[in-house]
Amino acid sequence: MDSPDTSFEAPQAAYTTVLVLGATGRVGRILVRKLLLRGYSVKALVRKREGKSAELPSAVQIVEGDLGSMSSCQVAVKDVNKIIFCAAARTAFTADLTRVEDRGVMNLVKAYQDECQQVAARSKSKTWPQAKLDVADFSLVYHQSRWNITYVGSPDEEKQGRDRATNIAVAEINDENNLVFEGVLFQRGAFAEVGAELNPTMKLGGHRTKDSEGLIMRIKGDSHVYVVVLGTSDGQMYGSRFLSTSSYSSVRLPYSAFRPQFQGQGPIDPATITSIALRYENKKSTVPTGVSAAEVQAANDKDQKFCLEVDWIKAIPGGLEPDVIMVSCAGQPRAGVSDADLKKVIDFKRRGEENLRLSGLGYSVIRPGTLVEEPGGYKALVFDQGDRVSEGISAADVADICLRALHEPSARNKTFDVCYEYDADEAATMYELVARIPDKSNNYLKSAVASLAKNT
């Protein structure tokens, strides 16, 4: 009779190499054996001084190095098809958390992206499936020449036949080859737009946005809210707001975040996108009661002026499966960990999650409850979103979820919490708990995460 741990088959295993980070940890050491049992080739990045590589099965290809080292990550991702990140910092020291949870994730995804590009080049492919596609790269003259101010003024003022010349907006390319969109809008309700028509065909062939899942931008602003406006071939308009910051940051906007201009329009079809614009609107600020007239005027003056600097805008490629599985944490209290240290750990975990999301790679982020030392597969599991889990979960069950997420389209680009089944608190009955039995003979994960929100 088949072992219950091997009855779930993975036909893709024979030609898939999985890199496991944290292979000697509580989840990792179980996961490695599950992968090998199903026929996957497994690599593991292990720190030299850990001395734990002897604990791993001999079939595991061990790479000695450190997540904090880009060169180590480059060696580790060579010839890898999938990555499972279940590493964790050993202490709550900032240096340790930065090395693993923040810089470690950035190093890993950058090394993996470079490796995929090199594989595509060796196979003479025009591009690799995970590559982000240029929508606007302002280091190129082609894109610099296409972006212009498309509107500045107030629709209400125009209806009344009044002059809109008092509102000012300019778009220029600065010395760093970035687009600078700035101006002054004196009327409430006035807005300014800079944009361009999009050529749907890429230089090397292929559609620019057809199979993409959203946009990602590298921008620097002034703490104002801006809007990305997409136009389609059938004349429809869709917009998505984002908050700018005073330092450069990456902003990810899934197409699901774009809202139609008019009610009754269906969701945006990426294949029909023909134009893109960035908009700033001078909207009335909410001023707290009891403030002075000078403070009100200062708030109005701040809203009038705007300045947004854009490095590039890219389309996030679509795909069927996750490329990277990350084991994070649900943020429950832990024995022997102070509240201050727990908050610090969670902050760095969330920073690592965001590094992965902004990479453009397909991902699944798993946030388990507190890990407990129990056998897996014997208790019902609850899958949820929204930081509401309160129970623990065995490391074996978390390892099994990682395994099943590898080739599960329903898990792509989703972040979810998971723990043992529990009774909902009376104060939290606004949602229904749906428990899943971890059935070894089929992929219970598909039905468990199918209804969860994407791009989370």
Question: What order do the helices and strands come in, and which of them pair?
Answer:
Blueprint: E1 17-21, H1 28-37, E2 41-46, E3 61-64, H2 70-76, E4 82-85, H3 94-122, E5 133-137, H4 141-146, E6 148-153, H5 155-159, E7 168-173, E8 179-184, E9 191-197, E10 212-220, E11 225-232, E12 237-243, E13 249-254, E14 259-260, E15 273-281, H6 293-304, E16 305-317, E17 324-327, H7 339-357, E18 363-368, E19 371-372, E20 381-384, E21 393-394, H8 395-405, E22 414-420, E23 435-436, H9 444-449
Parallel strand pairs: 1-2, 1-4, 2-3, 4-17, 17-18, 18-22, 19-21
Antiparallel strand pairs: 5-16, 6-9, 7-8, 8-16, 9-15, 10-13, 10-16, 11-12, 11-15, 12-14, 20-22, 20-23
Helix pairs in contact: 1-8, 2-3, 3-7
Structure description:
This protein has 456 residues and is α/β, with parallel strands linked by helices. The chain is built from nine helices and 23 strands. The chain has helices at 28-37, 70-76, 94-122, 141-146, 155-159, 293-304, 339-357, 395-405, 444-449, and strands at 17-21, 41-46, 61-64, 82-85, 133-137, 148-153, 168-173, 179-184, 191-197, 212-220, 225-232, 237-243, 249-254, 259-260, 273-281, 305-317, 324-327, 363-368, 371-372, 381-384, 393-394, 414-420, 435-436. Helix 1 (28-37) crosses helix 8, helix 2 crosses helix 3 (94-122) and helix 3 (94-122) runs parallel beside helix 7 (339-357).
Give structural attributes.
single chain; 456 residues; alpha/beta; nine-stranded mixed sheet; 9 helices
Total helical elements? 9
What profile does the largest beta sheet have?
9 strands, mixed
Annotation, overall tally of beta strands: 23
Question: What is the topology, as strand order, of the major beta sheet?
Answer: 3-2-1-4-17-18-22-20-23
Mean pLDDT: 85
Share in β-strands: 25-35%
Give the oligomer, counting copies of the same chain as homo and different chains as hetero. Answer: single chain
**Low-pLDDT sequence parts:** 426-432
Helix-and-strand structural type: alpha/beta
First-last Cα distance = 41 Å
Helix content: 10-25%
Morphology call:
globular
What is the rounded Rg? 25 Å
